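In this supplementary section we document a worked example of the pipeline. Step one takes a protein sequence of length 359 as its only input; no multiple sequence alignment statistics are reported here. Step two produces a three-dimensional model, which step three serialises into structure tokens for compact storage. The input and output of this example are shown verbatim.
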Amino acid sequence: DEAYFKHVDWVVAKANELGLYVGFLPTWGDKWNRKWGAGPEVFDPPKAEAYGAWLGARYRDAGVIWILGGDRPVENERHYAIVRAMARGLKAGDGGRHLMTMHPCGGQGSSQYFHQETWLDFNMRQNGHESLFAPRYAATRKDYELQPVKPVIDGEPLYEDHPIGFKAQDHGHSLAADVRRALYWDLFSGACGHTYGHHSVWQFHDKGRQPVNNPLFVWREALQRPGARQMQHGRALIESRPFLTRIPDDAIVVPASVPTAVPGTGLNRMVATRDAEKTYAFVYCPAGRAFKVRMNALAGKTVKAWWFDPRDGKATAIGEFPNDGEREFVPPDLGEYVDWVLVLDDAEKRYPAPGDRSP
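The serialised model returned by step three reads:
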């Protein structure tokens, strides 16, 4: 349908004009594995390869990232053959100019299927629409540690205002705090990036349209939800320090006498990261509670400490301390869903306030 693809051309060109790359799924998963969805299954390996080559050639010069899969498990050799054939076709069509990954189904990652394959440039996880699944974020860490080394990104975490576990009647809808938690769990566990989504926006819910699973807002209203605005604070924090040498390091946090409290578990699992040179460290606590850190996670003689508020992006200086032993820090506000990031800097580096990306 040339008219359809001319519209796709326009969408891709407009996104590129705005400085955006398009995450381009050649097909949704029900067209090769109708485990659920409308279908029909239309692809076999030859058709997948031919379609991939045609699509790759058409968007050879566009700013796109190929995302194979489409929210389905790879369950048999036929499925493997179809995905591999489409990857082959895309590379033949675009000359290998674009990055390529695979979007799996909930709780899974591309690494469990294709990590060793050369066409897979980086891994994608779908940590999914649960609020209690901290083990899924531990899986992000495992992907980070795989060999050969490939970046990992969470392509579908819990969306804002999404029915938790897809069961609105039982569990209600997610909050901004839930999507912030997923962001910092990912970024501090080794992910190279994170995806934000909203339950009303993905389906473009509007008056007169059939709703899917209890959306709370029309899509234009959903664009103004607090979690969407708060994603930028996570990026600002990361970019306010040298981030290309950043590594996960949960050992910064000193376990309490009851470790399920600190570093915590479930919704309140704390995570930490630092740079390889030990010039700074970040500790994310999903709930406002006191905790201790190992000051020698940093290399300098003096440590400057800050609180960074993930809700508004503001930083507050705590003070400077000798780099010695363990030290307890108490967040400015305590309580559930009151999350904070403790920032520790080697004072000699004179880093700006956390979140300040000024040159």
